[in-house]
Structure formats: C-alpha cells, structure tokens
Automatic annotation (TrEMBL):
<dbReference type="InterPro" id="IPR011060">
    <property type="entry name" value="RibuloseP-bd_barrel"/>
</dbReference>
<dbReference type="GO" id="GO:0005829">
    <property type="term" value="C:cytosol"/>
</dbReference>
<keyword id="KW-0028">Amino-acid biosynthesis</keyword>
<feature type="active site" description="Proton acceptor">
    <location>
        <position position="62"/>
    </location>
</feature>
<dbReference type="InterPro" id="IPR018204">
    <property type="entry name" value="Trp_synthase_alpha_AS"/>
</dbReference>
<keyword id="KW-0456">Lyase</keyword>
<comment type="similarity">
    <text>Belongs to the TrpA family.</text>
</comment>
<comment type="subunit">
    <text>Tetramer of two alpha and two beta chains.</text>
</comment>
<dbReference type="Pfam" id="PF00290">
    <property type="entry name" value="Trp_syntA"/>
</dbReference>
<feature type="active site" description="Proton acceptor">
    <location>
        <position position="51"/>
    </location>
</feature>
<protein>
    <recommendedName>
        <fullName>Tryptophan synthase alpha chain</fullName>
        <ecNumber>4.2.1.20</ecNumber>
    </recommendedName>
</protein>
<keyword id="KW-0057">Aromatic amino acid biosynthesis</keyword>
<dbReference type="InterPro" id="IPR002028">
    <property type="entry name" value="Trp_synthase_suA"/>
</dbReference>
<keyword id="KW-0822">Tryptophan biosynthesis</keyword>
<comment type="function">
    <text>The alpha subunit is responsible for the aldol cleavage of indoleglycerol phosphate to indole and glyceraldehyde 3-phosphate.</text>
</comment>
<comment type="pathway">
    <text>Amino-acid biosynthesis; L-tryptophan biosynthesis; L-tryptophan from chorismate: step 5/5.</text>
</comment>
<dbReference type="InterPro" id="IPR013785">
    <property type="entry name" value="Aldolase_TIM"/>
</dbReference>
Amino acid sequence: MPTERITAAFDRAKADKRAVLVSYLMAGDPDLETSYQALCALRDNGADIIELGAPFTDPMADGPAIQRAGLRALAAKTKLTDVLALIARFRESDQTTPIIIMGYANPVHSMGYGAFAEAAHKAGVDGTIIVDLPPEEDGPLREEYAKYGLSVIRLATPTTHEARMKKVAEGASGFLYFVSVTGVTGAGSADPAAIAANIDMARRVSGLPVCVGFGVKTGAQAAEMAKIADGVVVGSAFVEHAEAAHESGDLACAPQGMGVLAGELSKAIAGVAKP
C-alpha cells in the first residue's frame, strides 16, 4: 500500500492534467493536536501529499522558519514516536493521502532501522526523506523498508550531475525531491528556466516523478514550478502559520491559515495544464 498510495496520487494528478501539491508541516508545532488539525486542513484544501517533519536538534537543510518550528516542537517534547502516533491517528479517517516523514538519521538510527520501519508501516507512513543519509549509507534502512513497501525518497540539487543522479536514483522510489536552490529551506527563489533541464534529466535518469521544493511560497511561484515539474513542495510558508499561531496564542488560526494557503496553491497549480 505505501508506495502505491504515492503512485496513485500522481496518477490522479496526471488524469487531471496537473502537478501535485506537496505540503509540509512540522509535527508537534506548536502542539500535536494543532498538527492533527493542520493535517486535515491541508488534505481538505488540495494537498495531494503531506510531508510531516520530525523535529531534530541539529538540522542541516532547514532554513530559519523550519528550524524555529523544530525548536517549538522539541519544547513541546515531541518525539519520533509521537510523530508516528499522529500519523496513525490521521489514518483512522484517511487511507488515501500519502504521508512522508521528513527528518534526520539520528532519531531513526536510535530507534533502530527495523523497529522504525515496522512502526512506520503500522502507523500508515508511505515513505521518508532522511536528509542526511546519502545513498551510499542507506542500504540497511532500505532493506528494512523493502519488507513493508516503504519509499526511500531522495534529494537532488541543481549541482547533481547525471552520473551522480544515477546513484541518487538507485533504490529510490515514490518520487524524487529536487531542491531548487543551493541553500536551505525558504531561502530565495529559483528561476524555473534555469533548472528545467536539470529536472528533465532527473526524471529521465530516475524514472520517477520529480517534485520541486525550497524557496516556493506563493501561488505564482508554485504555478511556474508546476510548468516544469510533476509536483511542487511548499514548506516554510505553511510553517509560518504555526509560528503566528504560537506567538498569538490563537492555535486554531494555524490550521485555518494553512488550509487557506493550500487552497490558493492548489488552485494556482491546477491552472497550469500539463500534457
């Protein structure tokens, strides 16, 4: 079911002649109940796939907004097991929307690859993006994932040349996450024309759908990326709603704001007809 659920999301989008919207939020930011409501709001307003951040003390790819989100989640004592429990709760009413855990190797390694893979499968996880675990080092994790059909989703960048892309694609499944800028999340905005050839190469070499993220915040930016990619990933713009809710004390405004943004992005992406 897990990888198939991701494939089905892309198939539905392809039938609608559009790209998919991948929305990110940090689990436990500002608390787990708000995260659950946000998951539902994203799903109800056009998010095709949801990336759920697992908070970690030493992130390397996260920009300031997501770093702060991780710190808030950690302050709320959110653990990897809490992230899994949150997904299991979501799965009680949703067996369709793919959920991807995005995080770092240390918590997964600490839990144990086998134990994590089994727990993720039972919770209803479809795959993971482990930012700091390169293809050369994730063999043991992939072996455990294979038992449950979990996807290993890899990152590529504008500096990933074709020979390296072949290694990145080796053992990957679900989709390929193309980082549009050489930097952290929320940093700047890429020129779609400058990376279009890279995305075409990534799709050709991997045989997987390619989703573009980092630096995409607005409907206009999402629409431009939808012209060249199979999916568009938006993270920091959603997380900023959680930050505003935390600062104001009105936690309900986080899922509400995320839902509105998801609707705007979904509409913008749907406006780009794909062959």
